C-alpha cells in the first residue's frame, strides 16, 4: 500500500493506511483526547453530528526527539500550541467520523476518517475535501502524511520520527508529486 496521499479530486487528498487493530482501538485514537494527543492534537470532541471539536496541536511534542521549529511554522508552535475549532458533520462509531477543518463558516474544508476491519488490522481511509489552493493542498498533504506516520508508530508501540523534519521533507515531496494546476 502506497503511504503517499493521492489527489482524489482537484480539491481533495486521500490517504490509506493499514494499521494494527482492533477497530475499537483505532477509533479511540481518533476520538479520545489523550490518545489523539499522541499523534495529532488533544481536545474535546462531541461525537454527534453538529458536535463541537477542539484540536490543540503541539507538533513538537509528538516525538521524544526534539528539534527546532522551522521559522515558517513558528507561529503555529510557540509553546502554547495552535488551536482549531470545528464541528462534527457525521459520526457512525466505530467506522466513520467527519468534521470540518478550517476556513470561513460554510466554506470549511472537511476531514473524513473511514475505518474497516481487515482481520487483525484496520484500513483507515482519510479524505480531506474542499482544499482551497495548491499551497493548502501541499501543507495538508505533508501534515496528514506525517501525522499518520506517527499514528502508525503509536499503534505499533514504536517511537515516532520527529515531526518538523519529517513534515518539511514530505511537504517538499508533495510539491514534486502533486500537479501545479
From TrEMBL:
It comes from the Bacteria. It holds the Pfam family AHSA1. SUPFAM superfamilies: Bet v1-like. CDD domains: SRPBCC_CalC_Aha1-like_6 (cd08899). Coiled coil: none annotated. Residues 22-155 form the Activator of Hsp90 ATPase homologue 1/2-like C-terminal domain. Belongs to the AHA1 family. This is Uncharacterized protein YndB with AHSA1/START domain. It comes from Microvirga subterranea.
Amino acid at each position: 500500500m502506497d503511504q503517499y496521499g493521492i489527489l482524489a479530486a482537484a480539491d481533495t487528498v486521500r490517504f490509506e493506511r493499514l494499521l494494527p487493530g482492533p477497530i475499537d482501538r483505532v477509533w479511540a485514537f481518533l476520538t479520545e483526547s489523550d490518545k489523539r494527543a499522541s499523534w495529532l492534537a488533544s481536545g474535546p470532541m462531541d461525537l454527534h453530528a453538529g458536535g463541537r471539536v477542539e484540536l490543540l496541536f503541539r507538533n513538537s511534542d509528538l516525538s521524544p526527539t526534539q528539534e527546532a521549529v522551522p521559522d515558517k511554522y513558528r507561529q503555529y508552535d510557540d509553546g502554547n500550541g495552535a488551536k482549531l475549532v470545528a464541528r462534527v458533520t457525521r459520526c457512525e462509531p466505530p467506522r466513520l467520523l467527519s468534521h470540518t477543518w478550517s476556513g470561513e463558516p460554510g466554506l470549511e474544508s472537511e476531514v473524513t476518517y473511514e475505518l474497516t476491519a481487515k482481520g487483525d488490522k484496520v484500513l483507515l481511509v482519510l479524505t480531506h475535501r474542499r482544499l482551497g489552493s495548491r499551497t493548502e493542498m501541499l501543507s495538508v498533504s505533508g501534515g496528514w502524511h506525517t501525522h499518520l506516520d506517527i499514528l502508525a508508530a503509536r499503534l505499533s508501540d514504536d517511537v515516532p520520527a520527529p515531526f518538523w523534519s519529517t513534515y518539511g521533507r514530505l511537504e517538499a515531496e508533495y510539491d514534486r508529486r502533486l500537479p501545479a494546476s
